[in-house]
Amino acid sequence: KSDIGKKVDSYRFKYILSDLSKKGTNSSNSSKNTAEKTKWEEYEEALRDLKSNWLSKMDNSEDAERLYADVVNLFPEHLASHTSLLQALETESKRPYPGGEITDTILETAKRIIAVTGEVCKAVDQNALLAHLGIKTDHRVDANIINSKMEKQKNAIVDALAKKGSAMCRLYLNHVSGNGDQVITLEAIDEIWLNLLQYVEPNDIKQAGYFGMWHAVAYEHYGRAIKLAIKMFEEKATRELEESILWMCAKLGWHHCAQHFARSTLIRFPPAYRLF
């Protein structure tokens, strides 16, 4: 009836909306896989994961080795069992630093770490892992599952290479000092170092800093070692790490610097707190 309505033609449209196609999700695929598993298989996987988690918490090497042998015997292809034993053998709070006393226990632990990391390197196909990391976009249906699996393998191989390299450096320095009989060459250490750098940056303190510090000390590059140690000290200050930095300063002839910080070590790390 309005003037605007008279000037405009009107047409009727009929819309037919079809149902949206449901795209298969990875969660549905994973639920199907879990649905196919029996209760006994689920129990075995839960028991395996429980043992692997407790393996990394063991503070007794004999108990850790016994539990490790049990898990590997039942699940020889389970990668987490090897990484859990590595965490038990070399905890962050008890790992040795350059300049400290290299005891027989530390040397035996280093040899054991090299053996276990060899199992990790065998279990991970590094060529397939590097090929996957080079993919810019993965359009496969189960891309999320594959990415999760490859990320676990990457973390395992990075941790294994870092621990293996630092253990080899300790054995090398012990051999150079004339105390060890196991020959470790700098070429072998470099091979592990270059392999690690395929996955992480050399300035990645969290994943490559500890090995990088030992690698620098093995080459007597104490300035580079101090640089990495100071960055680690900024992340987490410990007395053992500071004593290692002072040892490196003394190696460079910076005795004034070592003495200056040594006088205030007890202030930063008091053995006990006095009451007010």
TrEMBL record:
Spans annotated as Disordered: 21-40
Phylogenetic lineage: Eukaryota, Metazoa, Ecdysozoa, Arthropoda, Hexapoda
Protein name (Swiss-Prot/TrEMBL): Putative tripeptidyl-peptidase 2
The species this protein was found in: Triatoma dimidiata
Pfam families found in the cross-reference section: TPPII_C (PF12583)
Ranges of residues in domain Tripeptidyl peptidase II C-terminal: 31-98
Biased amino acid composition, Low complexity: 23-33
